[in-house]
């Protein structure tokens, strides 16, 4: 190996060694956020309300007096307590939050479906989708 080739190899080796490592990609599937609100219990409980009740129901609770809110939450807690032992376990609470989020997703899908099924035949054609999404374009 000649001196210029050796210098070139050494230079490339040093460049590779001193270069910044490539950024690792996160390959873990993370659960979606339970709310688009900031999760900061020191400031407010909006995130918790969305996660616990679902976004639409949380908006309703924001309009209630504290007494009405407490009464309605008591009724919801009875639904969460699946084994009816008078206590809500972590698992029961997790199941309720998942239920509330799925309910919101299904209701949103139903709204979207109705908005796209313009002729109300239970099917969405490409024309219906295109018109509902982009408006009628000649």
From TrEMBL:
InterPro entries: EF-hand-dom_pair, EF_Hand_1_Ca_BS, EF_hand_dom. It comes from the Eukaryota. Residues 68-103 form the EF-hand domain. Keywords: Calcium, Endoplasmic reticulum, Glycoprotein, Golgi apparatus, Membrane, Metal-binding, Repeat, Sarcoplasmic reticulum, Secreted, Signal. One of its GO terms (molecular function) is calcium ion binding. This is CALU protein. The keyword rRNA processing does not apply. The gene is Calu_1. One of its GO terms (cellular component) is melanosome. Its main location: endoplasmic reticulum. It comes from Bucorvus abyssinicus (Northern ground-hornbill). It is found in: Endoplasmic reticulum membrane; Golgi apparatus; Melanosome; Sarcoplasmic reticulum lumen.
């Amino acid at each position: 190996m000649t001196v210029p080739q050796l210098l070139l190899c050494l230079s490339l080796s040093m460049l590779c060694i001193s270069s910044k490592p490539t950024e690792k990609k996160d390959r873990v599937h993370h659960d979606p956020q339970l709310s688009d609100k900031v999760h900061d219990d020191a400031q407010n409980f909006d995130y918790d309300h969305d996660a616990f009740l679902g976004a639409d129901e949380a908006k309703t609770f924001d309009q209630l007096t504290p007494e009405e809110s407490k009464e309605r939450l008591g009724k919801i807690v009875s639904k969460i307590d699946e084994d009816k032992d008078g206590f809500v376990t972590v698992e029961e609470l997790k199941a309720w939050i998942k239920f509330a989020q799925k309910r919101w997703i299904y209701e949103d899908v139903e709204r979207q479906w109705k908005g796209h099924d313009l002729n109300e035949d239970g099917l969405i054609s490409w024309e219906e989708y295109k018109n509902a999404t982009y408006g009628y374009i000649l």
